Amino acid sequence: MNTRPIPRAAAAAAALTAAIALSACGSDVTNTNDGGSAENVLTIDNCGREITVDGVPEAVVGLSPTQTELLLRLGLADRIVGQAQTSTAPLSEAVAGLAADIPVLSEDTPPSREALLEVEPDFVYSPTDYEFTAEQGFASHDQLAEAGVAAYTATGGCPDRRMQGTVDDLFTDLANLGAVFDAEDEAAALADEAQATLDDVESRIEGLEKPTVAQVFVEGGALTAIGAGIEYDMIRRAGGENVFGPDDPEFASFFAAQINPEALAAENPDVIVFAARDAEHEQATRDYLAQTLPDVSAVANDRIVVISGSDVYPGSLGNIDAVRTIAAGLYPEAFQA
Fold it and tell me: What PANTHER family does the record tag this protein with (predicted)?
């Protein structure tokens, strides 16, 4: 296949305990005590870096809407001093009102170094390490550390984890953030709800024949296939048989690769899954598939599943929603009741 890489464009308590132990997944937490002080000092192993948090952070920034939403659902609205990349994804109606008065630091891109440091955060939560790229004008990890800011990247978005990330990485983030913000009960409730959704999906699709699935992304007439990372695991957890995978040479170094339409036609998947930013992007992608690949089984039989682009961000509760949405598209009869 002709390709070229694209740029970076269960009880809850048990789940949390297991997540903390998963240092191989990118994060680990150690509790210490500062000379007998009542404040806990936490050391977090995140993306191969050690982050020390002395006391509960009081000035927090979510560097994308998905991160802001998770912080809000942990009950931290009164501690969030900034939100970023606000135009890239909508907050859910359940929490949007809580964010109305939170300063917007950026809309389309991560905030500049100056904009982020101006609100004097002591903790920032990001979906990937891209948000800390100094060459782009963003505050780097070193610059934030010098300013006394703990910078946490979602486990599934760590550079050394992006290719192997799974939906379960979210539980590691919930465990870490619950410990950092002294919000273990809130984190446990979110973990419990997420695990219940995954268990429900698993029980509904158990024993059913797996359809073949391709996950793609279309932008400006370019077709990209997803073959690794969290997105790949979403298809697996939803009961699909991925036609592209991490063992394919095209995905040896990056989770996505631009492909020719003929490569997708040759795989002829039963179902196509794609992420859309908004209604306009969804329609443009549907039009592209109908015009370019009308004879592919998924297109001819209108077996196309659309998920929100924000639901594929690492460290997002939407990862769980995406699994259920995909599963319902693969097995509609199993989700009618």
Answer: IRON(III) DICITRATE-BINDING PROTEIN, VITAMIN B12-BINDING PROTEIN
